[in-house]
Fold this sequence. Notes:
Blueprint: H1 3-15, E1 26-29, H2 32-37, E2 42-49, H3 53-63, E3 69-72, E4 89-90, H4 95-99, H5 106-117, H6 133-156, E5 161-163, E6 189-192, H7 202-215, E7 219-221, E8 225-231, E9 237-244, E10 247-259, H8 268-274, H9 291-298, E11 303-304, E12 309-315, H10 316-322, E13 337-340, H11 354-359, E14 376-381, H12 382-387, E15 403-406, H13 409-422, H14 424-427, H15 436-453, H16 465-469, E16 493-505, E17 508-509, E18 516-518, E19 524-530, H17 548-565
Parallel strand pairs: 1-8, 2-3, 2-10, 3-7, 10-19
Antiparallel strand pairs: 4-6, 5-6, 8-9, 9-10, 11-17, 12-16, 13-14, 14-16, 15-16, 18-19
Amino acid sequence: MSSQSRVSRRDFIKAAGLGATGTxxxxxxxxxxxxxEMDWDQQVDVVAVGSGGAALSAAVGAIDNGASVLLLEKGPxxxxxxxxxxxxxxxxxxxxxxxxxxxxxxxxxxxxxxxVAFPELYRExxxxxxxxxxxxxxxxxxxxxxxxxxxxxxxxxxxxxxMAMSWEDKPxxxxxxxxxxxxxxxxxxxxxxxxxxxxxxxxxxVANMSAYVRDxxxxxxxxxxxxxxxxxxxxxxxxxxAETPDGTKRFGANKGVVFGSGGFTHNPYMRTNYLRTPVLGxxxxxxxxxxxxxxxxxxxxxxxxxxxxxxxxxxxxEVLAFSSVPSGVFFLGGDSMIAVNKFGKRMYDEKYVYPxxxxxxxxxxxxxxxxxxxxxxxxxDEAAREFGGMLIPxxxxxxxxxIITGDTLEELAGNIQARFDSLAEQIGPYPxxxxxxxxxxxxxxxxxxxxxxGVDEDFHRGEAPIDAFFHDASADRGLPxxxxxxxxxxxxxxxxxxxxxxxxxxxxxxxxxxxxxxNIHDEPISGFxxxxxxxxSPSGKSYLGGGGTLGLGMTFGYLAGEHAASQE
Length: 568
């Protein structure tokens, strides 16, 4: 390796913010002689890196197949991003679906995945529906194993689940349920059961699975940041090195190491250089900084899907203040509410699913050379406060500082620009177009016409099945379209600035149907596994349904732990 390449790597690590502790991320080869003489600080069959859904599922998969397990968590407490999530998992043909008499055809499922994940590749008459064979094989593996995995987790008590229901007491729809390839299937979303047997959250998932791991001899160590992958002369991963509260330690893995360590949402350098368009932060825990990408590169791992993320809209001022926000904007509340761009124009069905709304921020104007929708404005009236929904405080509640007010649309527009101006040091200048006010007035007039007829001719608000899931049923006022009410002709008016963020990124080492990381020749790297947001998700550009992150992550996590445990 040339000195220039070594300098480049150090520069990259420095820019990525990953060398702050003084230890470069990467890999170290351990010779056979060194391995025989090595005094491991701890040695087990399977080491899992992380402690969210993917890593915990890997640990359970290994334990269920007779392996000893250790989990190493970078953060101060176990659970990762899963602990702050809704905890739902998207599971095709689940045992809950079968018990409810819902049929989930394998071919229809694969067709839906291909159509949504890679629409530019989709070919209805192709044996793989246009997908590359390795990606298609992962979807096949997911369908063939997800129900087995989740039923095992449920039956064993490691992860008790129930079918997720909407606010209308119906099974939750997929995010793109209106597409013909979906097949009309409802009920793939599975939720954790809480202590009372109802629908729980991510904290319930982490608590149950952590208890199962510990009850079966596993150990979870927090404050342990894995910094190096240890390989032998044959290229097999035999353990990891980690920074711990007690200094640097080495942990041996007789059968394999499974990384379920999350993505790179909180690595600004990687976000800027890998993702397609600007992203400010998101819901992932602050420790998700892409550590694995640099380590995996050192051992020759093939990387994929680095330019994609699980998209999540954010309150702009919240994500600027905290980067790792408590919660993203899962739906836009209020029926007398619209979202507009810098021209005062609507861009989408405001009740549609959050990943697709977030895509609108990424639209690029080739003539103007900018992102006209990069920052958006959610606008609502006083009636919306009475009937409520996410982000909208009730009529008697104090207004949080991120809500902009105006007694007239003219005043509101001026205050919106003033707020953007106040954020210029963080986001750069963002002038509303000179047509913003007139555009907003025209947009409201057109929208109000649709509200009166009940038909949104521009963006089909209220027509997609997922619109009902993300709509507060208490806002039903007997309107022609329950999702649309006219915006008042008189103020006060309110506005909230919106930006693009992530639940987490979804790119990293490419893996096979066993969860094994592969090299640039698509050969598995022995002893090296990945699952969840740390790896290259087969979901591509899409968010298949609620719990799409955990469904894939936990299935392949379990398969990885299962496969690792079987190794000699």
